[in-house]
Amino acid sequence: MNSWSLLHDHMNEPKDEVLQVGTEKELTDAERKEMIAKLEVIKKKNFQSVAIACMAEYSRVYGEMPENESWMFMEAEYYGTGEGQTVCLQMTQAEPGHKDDFDETLPYPDNYKTLTTQAYRAVREFHDNFGTWHLHGLRFHTREAFFTKYVNQLPASLVKLKDQQCLLEYHSELHYNFA
Description:
It contains five helices and four strands; from the N terminus they run ααββαβααβ. By secondary structure, the chain is of the alpha+beta class.
């Protein structure tokens, strides 16, 4: 069986009712809240899957991430014939601070123990900055590889901070089209 057959079979599998598109049914408030809750769970699982895949590729390409590295260096490139090219760059420490990063139902001080990984938080931030589409080509890099590959696209002030330990969040999107 070839990959197209597998894809066709996968596309024709029965789907969970919450994921069906094209229904004309009006949702009650309770149904809407239930659907949003289900979609949030799916979104978190997808972020985790992307984070795991990115870290696996990072390990395969660069080896294990150094324990003393506090930043995540990320990029996604998209090419489309007639659509041009988009390059999304992000540098983040992906610190915990989102409500999903902690279990607030636990008593103090356990309610401050982080539940999410730095890679998960970085993927979530990348999604917040660039949207779902660019998660498809997301890659994590080492500090050296990131700055070597993108030195011409980064602000000079950021390049000067390359080896400094400081709190820093950076993201940019470059799109160009010669059509």
